[in-house]
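### Sample
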Amino acid sequence: MLVSLKMSYKAAAGEDYKADCPPGNPAPTSNHGPDATEAEEDFVDPWTVQTSSAKGIDYDKLIVRFGSSKIDKELINRIERATGQRPHHFLRRGIFFSHRDMNQVLDAYENKKPFYLYTGRGPSSEAMHVGHLIPFIFTKWLQDVFNVPLVIQM
């Protein structure tokens, strides 16, 4: 799987993947002519967000592409019911629009099964920067409302 991901990266970036090193030319080399598909129009990676659509990025396509699930009103209501607290404003305002495994976390919490939270720092630079703060703020909120341990990989 890792070899496949590295090959996909090389095809999109035109160079081999190097940890902590953004590509020199991150834009995909795709055909934006009449034969170009809509999927080729949106490009998102850790360094670039690009679309040729006047409507902007199609977040529903990103959810499919990255294998996550949409954060909908039903999930936000479930979080509020389970925790007894108002959902974080990142959820209420749609700043976070997708998730992975939040239903498993809620199932464990509702069934009083132990779990912990695990997050980390992305390889966007050699040092921490203000961009790392957003997921840490939200994860800290999750730690507080679920009263569980939090592991942060650096």
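The first helix runs from residue 2 to 13. This sample (Tryptophanyl-tRNA synthetase) is used throughout the tutorial notebook.
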